[in-house]
Amino acid sequence: MLPSPPLDSLHPVPAEPRIAATCKRQAVPSTCDAQPAELRIAGFTPLTTVDYPGELAAVVFCHGCPWQCRYCHNAHLLADEDLAPIAWADIRAFLEQRRGLLDGVVFSGGEPTVQGDLATAMAEVKALGFKVGLHTGGPAPERLARLLPWLDWVGLDIKALPEDYPAITGVAGSGERAWASLHQLLAAGVALEVRTTLMPGWRFAEELRPLMDRLADAGVTRYALQALRAATARDPAIATAGDITPPAAAIDCGATRFADFIVRGV
Q1: Which of 104, 154, 250, 252 is a plausible cystine mate for 131, CB 3.0–4.6 Å?
Q2: Residue at 29 is within a domain
């Protein structure tokens, strides 16, 4: 069982989630029609102040993703390698001891929506009195629809305009699925933060301005533009390109177009 640390020892954990080796990840097709038989957890952070805006939260890192995003900084959660998973029962037991001390639990990854039993885990978190947060790229809008009753907040990665997604994710049709997830969340009225990580070669007028305008026109009000950190990118071509920070024109545009605009990672 996960230990319950004393209050004065809890702090945000900057290290990568714990990963070891015993069981194989099942392959998940890009259409997300199949899901593993159980929740597969690769790591757990007992306290964070940054992963759920305005809340003290724990983070559950799920294993696997149907996309291969070039700038992904969590490639250690995607690899087809043996993994010693953390049992959900152990995390649930830990959370039972943190009632009244934590505000919420965030399911992150990897891509949590490709996991089996995610809705069950979320329902158990709600039953314990916690808010439920989700970090997702939106690859499975049909599954996301089934999670809506338990969601209090979502951080959604919108990587580009739909037609530009395959150059980032390596998967045809991924952009249409992500934007369908966006429209679904907006229609449901779930508290939402949309974020975009910069790509090498992007120009404000050609890539960023059309993307930001379309998001604002769709009804996005909280938007984060994130610097690219080359050192952690899974694609060696990006890793050697150097960090990329938002241009001044994009920052000015964001401050004008969104009620709540954030520049992250600079």
Answers
A1: 104
A2: no
Q: Could you tell me the mean pLDDT of each successive run of 10 residues in the chain, 266 residues long?
A: 37 31 29 53 94 97 91 74 81 97 96 92 97 98 96 98 96 98 98 96 95 98 94 80 91 98 92
The reply to whether 129 falls in a domain is: yes
Enter the tokens of residue 24. 């194989």
Give the CATH number of the domain where residue 64 resides. Answer: 3.20.20.70
Does any domain span residue 94? yes
pTM: 0.85
Query: By residue range, what is the domain housing residue 252?
Result: 41-264
At 147 the pLDDT is: 97
pLDDT of residue 24: 27
Q: How many domains does the chain have?
A: 1
